[in-house]
Amino acid sequence: MAISRLRLGFRIGFAAVGTLVGLSAVICWIQVFKSYDTAAFGGVSGLTAAVALVVHILYARDQWQTWYGWLRGLMLSGCFVQLAGVCGFVTYLVLGITNHHVLKPDSYYLTCVWCFLTWKWGFLLFLYSRMYRREFDPTYQRMAEPADVKV
Q1: 57-73, pLDDT tens digit by residue?
Q2: Which whole number is the average pLDDT over 140-150?
Q3: Membrane spanning segments where (predicted)?
Q4: Which among 20, 32, 54, 141 is placed 20 to 30 Å from 129, CA to CA?
């Protein structure tokens, strides 16, 4: 089940914007606000978006047919990024509530937002890797085809 070129172009554009925003967050939060934890999660978010961008570009070039074994590792890394995002989200939310932080550039709440974005890109990396792996996996393709049943 191939996806349309318009949908693939939208996914590539969305991942490119996520990469640029995530990497610019690293520069912004380190240079301007001196908030290294927010910069770290922004960097992980941008890096995960960049990996998702590469996954889409390789799909557009039809190169996953020979390298579809890598998609399993990308699925696993997407799961770990999701786990880091959820743990960071809960941790920084609890820290923000217990320390009575207000919403300012170096608060725990903005770090919580970047943890959510990290979780989102980890989920999308897992989802797209799984979808493309199912498309190129020969055993899954045999299972999806209807069998010749004689009655």
Answers
A1: 999 998 887 777 899 99
A2: 59
A3: 12-33, 39-59, 71-95, 107-128
A4: 20
Q: If pLDDT is split at 50, 70 and 90, which confidence band does 2 have?
A: confident
Does residue 151 fall inside a structural domain? no
> Is position 146 within any domain?
no
CA of 117: how far to CAs of 7, 24, 38, 128, in Å? 21, 14, 11, 16
Measure the CA–CA gap between 142 and 127, rounded to whole angstroms. 21
Domain tally, the chain: 1
* Alpha carbon distance 131, 121 (integer Å): 15
- Alpha-carbon separation of residue 6 from 9, 13, 53, 55, 110 (angstroms): 5, 10, 15, 16, 33
Is pTM beyond 0.85? Reply is yes
- What domain range is 15 assigned to? 5-137
Locate 80 and state its tokens: 């770990």
Asked whether residue 116 is domain-assigned, the answer is yes
Residue 119 lies in a domain: yes
CA angle 1, 145, 73 (to 5 degrees): 55
